[in-house]
Design brief:
Length: 249
């Protein structure tokens, strides 16, 4: 095993150093990260946390949070003409449409905002993240995921780099920003190619470690890389990344 040395990143790695997780380099998923980050907050509150699912699609997360035993007051928000919203809302979720720009709730309404794979479809991301900051209560959490190296899909208009998205969060006044690697980009490209060929690939590699992430994790551990460095390496090739941030008290 190579001797572990203190990592001193340069270039692109240095840009994202402050946003890298120290606890783990594992591939992350927005829903699992949301459950992990919210569980302690729910346990310490007498009333259910008020959560906004921003870009909720068919409101799938409503049932998923219930199944995970999360005591939440769940509200969904989606643009009215999205293909996902037109498919119908799942279960008994409370759902509202909006213009994709202005969140129709007063300031400091929500304890948490959850947004899974939405911002690659947003025309005004800077404004919308500013709105997220506005409607979050003090110490409220914003958690979700976004596309990086993912092929065009479902009206997507842009992809983000981890550094670019973290900068938007910071500029909106959010802090404690953490960016974790999601599924790798090569897997998403291969998945799209398989779909074009009429093959319906499963989604099981979105949780756990996708092939390139598994390779990078294995090799970087052998080389003695610390968790932040392993995460940074995966983020260079990520298809999705998972983010979390907190509104200052």
């Amino acid at each position: 095993m190579p001797r572990r040395r203190k990592w001193q990143p340069v270039g692109d790695m240095a840009l994202i150093l402050e946003y890298l997780p120290r606890d783990s380099s594992a591939q992350s998923h927005a829903f699992e990260e949301a459950v992990r980050r919210l569980a302690g907050r729910i346990a310490s509150k007498a009333q259910p946390l008020k959560l906004l699912d921003l870009g909720c699609g068919r409101a799938d997360s409503y049932e998923r949070f219930k199944q995970a035993g999360m005591q939440l007051s769940w509200l969904g928000l989606e643009i009215g003409d999205s293909p996902e919203a037109r498919g119908g809302v799942v279960g008994e979720a409370t759902f509202q449409v909006y213009d994709g720009r202005k969140i129709p709730y007063p300031a400091e309404t929500f304890d948490a905002v959850y947004s899974r794979q939405v911002f690659e479809h947003v025309w005004y991301p800077r404004e919308l993240i500013g709105e997220v900051s506005r409607v979050l209560k003090k110490a409220g959490i914003f958690v979700g995921s976004c596309s990086a190296l993912e092929p065009f899909h479902s009206r997507s208009v842009c992809n983000f780099t981890p550094y670019g998205f973290a900068t938007l969060l910071r500029d909106a006044g959010l802090s404690e920003i953490c960016i974790r690697p999601g599924v790798d980009g090569l897997f998403l490209i291969a998945r799209r190619l398989a779909g074009l060929a009429g093959i319906a690939p499963g989604s099981w590699l979105f949780v756990g470690e996708s092939p390139l992430n598994l390779f990078l994790e294995t090799v970087s551990r052998i080389m003695g890389f610390e968790a932040r460095r392993r995460a940074a390496l995966k983020l260079l090739f990520c298809g999705h990344f998972v983010f979390s941030a907190v509104k200052g008290a």
